[in-house]
Design brief:
Elements lengths: L9 E5 L8 H12 L3 E4 L6 H11 L3 E6 L4 H13 L8 E6 L10 H9 L3 E4 L5 H8 L5 H11 L1
Parallel strand pairs: 1-2, 1-3, 3-4, 4-5
Helix pairs in contact: 3-4
Length: 154
């Protein structure tokens, strides 16, 4: 039987530590489930260390961070630095989206900083949901999943 590379389907959804908004997370969970995803939703105001521990425990294909309080660029940069410094999580796909700052159209400036900081994709709220849906359609196997498939084939 040929090896079939499975698309990314296991998602961990969370806000950043300073964001108390929940409806955005519920919406994301429902959207990801509509795309066939298995979703674990950590909720609002999740401390960085809890997110890291849950990534280790659940081994998601993608960590999806959502923020609407306008401080996502600050919390996101701190969190992605911690995640990328963990050898067992360094290859985890991590994306962030929402209201990344409090400067309206100028929030676009944070996209480059967050991408350079280590996020695989950044979605500013002004870009709408279309960019996130495009990202989901383009998801192939996670880096870890591709490695597991290659090891199984060897």
């Amino acid at each position: 039987m040929p090896n079939i590379v499975r698309p990314a389907k296991k998602f961990l959804v969370s806000s950043v530590s300073s964001d108390a908004h929940m409806w955005n997370l519920v919406f994301l969970q429902l959207l990801l489930e509509e795309h066939g995803g298995e979703v674990s939703n950590l909720g609002a105001c999740v401390p960085d260390q809890v997110i890291i521990e849950e990534c280790r425990k659940l081994r998601p294909d993608v960590l999806v961070l959502s923020t609407v309080n306008g401080h996502g660029h600050l919390d996101g940069l701190r969190l992605i630095g911690k995640i990328r410094s963990e050898p067992d999580l360094a290859d985890l796909r991590v994306v962030i989206g929402g209201k990344l700052g409090v400067r309206g159209a100028e929030n676009v400036q944070f996209i480059e900083a967050l991408s350079a900081g280590g996020f695989d994709a950044v979605f500013e709220s002004e870009g709408g949901l279309e960019n996130f849906n495009e990202f989901l359609r383009g998801l192939g196997p996670s880096r870890r999943g591709a490695l597991e498939m290659a090891q199984a084939a060897a």
